[in-house]
Amino acid sequence: GLSKSYGSLEIFTDVDLAIDRGSKVVILGLNGAGKTTLLRMLAGVDKPDTGEVIPGHGLKVGYYAQEHDTLDVDRTVLENMRSSAPDMKDAEVRGILGSFLFSGDDVDKPAGVLSGGEKTRLALATIVASSANVLLLDEPTNNLDPASRAEILGALRNYSGAVVLVSHDEGAVEALNPERVVLLPDGVEDLWNEDYLDLITLA
């Protein structure tokens, strides 16, 4: 099982999690329970202290970080997209950007001048363009205006790949319609049921 500590502070221990093709999983736990840390380990950003993350054949991970640290702030919206999907045709790239509410001159803005909500939309658009088949999403609806949030929830509903979601947003969890829940710090895994919705806003 996976475990992680910082100094003498143990974040979580012995978490076992299998992400199957197309599975939808939500991770719940109080602040400080290690939700972001677990996602970072699944994404390969952080190394676990014990255990290992074994990628399946053909796995392509798309990781959305709360801090937008996957974006290159000096490059434009369009350039960020192109670096995520170098083989995609320009019209297709612009089509994805349009579906995330970027159009016209928006695509030539440097990512660094975007608002928090715009950065969220761009980070998620780059993940979609990268043809990832597993999305690791850390609070993807934070700081979003209603139109952007609706766009993200629609994308979550329609996404056919696997998703592991950390969120305080009941609407995002309902849009995902998860099959399973993982409770941190204990790493307990359970089938999703509506009772867990009460824990989301507490987390």
Q: What coarse outline follows from CA principal-axis ratios?
A: globular
**What does the largest sheet look like?**
6 strands, mixed
What is the arithmetic mean of pLDDT?
88
Structural class: alpha/beta
> What is the CATH H-level superfamily of the largest domain?
P-loop containing nucleotide triphosphate hydrolases
Give a summary of the structure in a few sentences.
With 203 residues, this protein is of the alpha/beta class. It has helices spanning 35-42, 77-84, 90-99, 116-129, 146-158, 170-176, 197-202; strands spanning 2-6, 9-15, 24-28, 61-64, 134-138, 162-166, 180-183, 188-191.
Any overview of this molecule?
- This protein is α/β, with parallel strands linked by helices.
- It folds into two domains: 125 residues, P-loop containing nucleotide triphosphate hydrolases (Rossmann fold), CATH 3.40.50.300; 60 residues.
- 33% of the residues lie in helices and 19% in strands.
- The protein has seven helices and eight strands.
- The strands form two sheets. Strands 4-5-6-3-7-8 form a six-stranded mixed β-sheet, sandwiched between helices.
- α5 packs parallel to α6.
- The two termini are 23 Å apart.
